[in-house]
Request: fold
Amino acid sequence: MNYSKILKEVKAEVDLLELEGHIANYIPELAKVDPDRFGLHLQCIDGTHFDFGDSQMKFSIQSISKVLSMALAMKLEGVAMWERVDVEPSGNPFNSLIQLEHEHGIPRNPLINAGAIVIADILVSRLANPKVDFLTFVRKLAGSEEIDFDLKVAESEAKTGFTNRALANFLKANFNLKNEVEEVLDFYFHQCSIAMTCRELAETFMVFANHGCLLHNGERMLSASQTKRINAIMQTCGFYDEAGEFSFRVGLPGKSGVGGGIAAIHPQQYSVVVWSPPLNEKGNSAKGMAALELLTTKTGLSIF
Ligand code: GLN
Reply:
C-alpha cells in the first residue's frame, strides 16, 4: 500500500472542501486555537509512520481521553463497572441532561460526558494519586514522558463547566457518584485537558489496534477481550449522535474530541489521528471526518 501517495491525495482533496465548521468556544481556552491547523498521522502495525501538516503540534485531546480512562477503569474495576454505566449508543449530544434523567442516573455509555464522569469517579476511588497515576498510564501507552495536562485548559473548563457540574450533581443525587462532585470534576477536567500531537496519540491508540499490547515493546496492557470491547464501544458510541454517520462514512472504531481531534484504529493494521479544530454541528471535526472517509475509501481498509 502506497500510504505516502494516498495521504498526499487525501490532503489535496480535503484542502478543496469547503466545510462548515466552528471552533468549540464554550471552553474559552480552546477558542484561541488557529482554525486552519490541520495534521494527520498514520502509524502502521509494522512500525512505519506517515504524516502531513501540523502532526507534530500539541492539541487538546478532550473527549478522546475518555477511551483511555475507560481502559484504565476496565483494568482496575473489571466487569463491576458495567452496573454503573451502560454500553448503548446515545443518539444524543455528548452533554445531554435529558437522557440521564430518563435513565435514572445510569449513563448510556462511557464515552458521553455523564458516563465519563462515572468512570472518573471509579478512577478517583481506585487510584492513590488519581491525576498523577492516570498520566503515568497514558505516558506508558504513548511510550513517552512528554505528555502532560494543559493546566490553562483544565482551569478554563473548570470555570465554565456548568453542564458537567449539573450532570455530576444528578449522578450524585442518583447514588452513582461515590466521591465529591468537585473532586471528580477536577480529575475529569484534567484528563480532558491532556495535550498530545497526532503522532503521540496515534502511538497511544496503537494498543487498541494491537489486541491490547504495546507496539514498541510488546507488553500486554489490556486483555484481548477488553480490547475487543473497547473497540466495540468506540464503534457504536465514539461520535455521540453521529456514531452511525462515522461508521457509514469511515468504517473504523474511533473517538472524537471538541479540540478537533479524531483517533481511529483498524485492528491489526493501523492507528490514525487527524486534527482540524472546526467542528460540525454534532461536535466532531468536520475536515477530520472527511479526511478519514477519503483514507478508508482510497485504501479500501475499513473494518467492513
Ligand atoms: N471536556 C469536554 C466537556 O466535558 C469534552 C467534550 C468533548 O470533547 N466532546 O465538555
Q: What stands out?
A: The pocket of glutamine is lined by residues 62-63, 94-95, 113, 157, 164, 192, 257-258, 283 (CB under 6 Å). Residues 90 and 298 are 30 Å apart (CA to CA). The longest strand covers residues 39-44. The chain has a mean pLDDT of 96.
